[in-house]
Target: Glycosyl hydrolase family 31
Amino acid sequence: MSMENRKLSIRLMDNEVWWGGDITYGDQMPFGRETIEIDLAAGIRGNQAAPLLVSSKGRYVWADAPIRYRFEDGLLTVVSDSGEPVLRGEGGNLRQAFLSASAEHFPATGTLPDARFFSVPQYNLWIELQYEPTQEKTLRYAEAVLANGLPPGVIMIDDNWMEDYGVWRFRSDRFPDPKAMTDRLHELGFQVMLWTCPFVSPDNAANFRMLESKGYLLRDERGETAIRRWWNGYSAVLDCTNSDAVAWYQEELQRLMDDYGIDGFKLDAGDPEYYRASDRSAVPMHPNGHCEAWAAVGRRYAFNEYRACWKMGGQPLVQRLRDRQHSWDLNGLASLIPNGLAQGLAGYAYICPDMIGGGQIGDVENNPSFRIDQELFVRYAQCSALFPMMQFSTAPWRVLDREHLAYCVEAAKLHAELGDTFLALAQHASTTGEPIMRHMAYVFPDCGLEDVTDQFMVGDRLLVAPVVEEGARRRVIRFPAGEWLGDDGSRVQGPCALEADAPLSRLPHYRLVEE
Model:
């Protein structure tokens, strides 16, 4: 290893591979065998990221600032423009590398999101209601959940419930009596979350003038209030490095909790791409740092959800994968497992895949040719069921026939049945930082499982092998040493690779038999 000008050059050991950085590259992990270069200062592609790389040989790299890293010809090069990257560990395995890094750089807080996240599904209304949520539609959706045999859970009212961006009051034309709505949802067994973001509409004159006059808004390099283009237009941005601005925002959210019984919030956006290195803020900050500051806002809410996050490993935050398409490929279903594994190895234990069937609004908005693939929808539900959390949006009872709907209901019930298992692992993660959803190589080192990215472990004893290929009714499963009891009653003696039956009705999963 050599070091100069905040640069590390690391010669890879024999058969050493690495994970980490931007979790969107999960499908290309582990790194080390092919040339790849990633710049975390240039953006994090809408997901979670950390200046962390962990190795199958017990080593890790950490920096307190964004890094650029390159794997080429057996050499790992890591560069940071501010702060010095460090290499730690020598000899060991992936689990040892991760636990060492976690304990030193992003220790678990001892707290976790609300326990109900791990035992009931989430129902986000984004794809089903798009930009037109109403009180009536929300209640109708919740009642349909129960009528179709799905368990009640966490319901999220998405964008456009409020008067404007930065004006966090219910639109009276859409929600005439939000307290009555929330009371009814609670009676039905749901918890209620609202979508929110750090953007402030400059067209809402009174609110904008107030926030600008108090210095709560981000300023550009000229000292003018920064106006940024995002997916809903042009907005100012709350300066989350300003403690008074954060206090104002949290007071607005607390009012919603106090007045209407809202349980928590989906805190969207905050991506580094909406900030500039030249921006002026209360505390000077790299764009990734602004993302981190936005994520810190949500730590006070037991019901929370984030998508974009920087360097927040070990925190009690729910992390959802960015919007995925309704497709079988790496833009959709095939990405869930590799990216979910990467989330855990970046320190994010409390993870949720994207909405079942896909959460990409472009698939359905103003697209008359869009059609639901019922097989894909079922496989999405099955793949999500044994993640720590699962989330519906598109109403399965509306788009599926009776047979396919039944398979989705079974998946949701399986998740609920394993709620105690997920909660126990979440409590463990809150003190150790360990992932709940674990890479095969994390649990079974030195077994040649580093490249397995279409199956995973829940804890150390439950092996999950969803079907993620179109039309497949069988799939190959890699079993480590030991006796494995399948959901279908079969017993498998590992180590071996076995082609197992996987009809559309089945989510293959196996438990390691106690010796």
Q: What stands out?
A: The chain has three domains: 2-105, 119-195+259-278+291-426, 435-512. Residues 62 and 104 are 10 Å apart (CA to CA). The chain has a mean pLDDT of 97.
